[in-house]
Amino acid sequence: MPERTLHIFAKSAVTITRDIGGGPPVQGDVLGNALNGNAFSWENPSDLSLTFSGSPTAITFEDADGILSDDPFSGSTVVDQRLTEDVTIDGVTYSASAETVRWQNPPPVNVENEYEVTLFDDAGTAYRMVGVSITEGYSTSVVGVMFDGPSPPPGTTLHYIQGVSTYGGSGQSVAIPEEVVCFLAGTRIETPDGAVAVETLAPGHHVRTLDRGPQPVRWIGRSSVCGLGRLAPVCISAGALGNDRDLFLSPNHRVLVRSSTAELWYGQPEVLVPAKALVDGVRIRTVPILRADYLHIVLDDHQMVFSEGIATETLFTGTMTQDILDAEAAEQLRMQAPRVRETIQVLSRMALTVREARHLLRSDARNSLETVHLRVA
Asked: Do 333 and 325 touch, CB atoms closer than 8 A?
């Protein structure tokens, strides 16, 4: 099952004050109490101000549909959104479990959309805040909040306005933000005429693919983001995986590997693993930079191209990826690659979650694990 990562403001990163009389809310933990109803309205007649600070916390879990929903259960079974990486939030550690039956011990651990609340900034702009909870068996705790759409910058204050703000606490769902996979500018991509920097490619140019030979580029997307946090590039040092030079990828960009263990476990000798799962802190490491200039390549199909000599994926234009492109990028994709925009691609290989990939790496001890290299006739 695919894996997703949410970035939340932990409860400790949200300061809530009353607009009438000042000071903290009478009830204390408003975000946690909203698990049981609209705790924001319980401070009536006072409006509330919420200030968001600090760095977001990452929560990684399996996901079948690109939607964070409330109560992903079928009877006593967890059917979606199970935690796949241990995470510590406000001093409490939640450990991933392979269990799916809620009354078992240790129990399954899953993530939920617990409630949604409309807040407003000083200019009247509406934000949809989502309360994110973690459930261990039958015990549910709100651990923080995220936003449906753009998050306010750290330090921003938003307001719950009595009688105006809305609250939903049952059956709600929200699209999970997805991070597009990218090559850092300067990365060399193999073409029929040799390796060229990814930023020099344009629609109509051909790149070499593992499965289908030279294929035309349909669209090149580009974005410049802060590379100091969750989007910091992963550097695969020259030679670490057989790559010719240092290779810089966005954290979720997947690399093709061959493994006899993967064939034993998954029935597939070749699988895709995200770059962040390969990080060992020595030869493969996260390299924060002030600004990361990222580019992504779209072909007619999801393919393996050769970056710095090893096989890595092109942008997989599934429904969720298309939905997170900004308006300008979406319009460019529609105009330059209408066939791609109107169809849903299929992954060319099985994709492992971070947890599965790390388990595979430990089992292989890097002995039988191989990347797929460019072979020039």
From this structure: yes
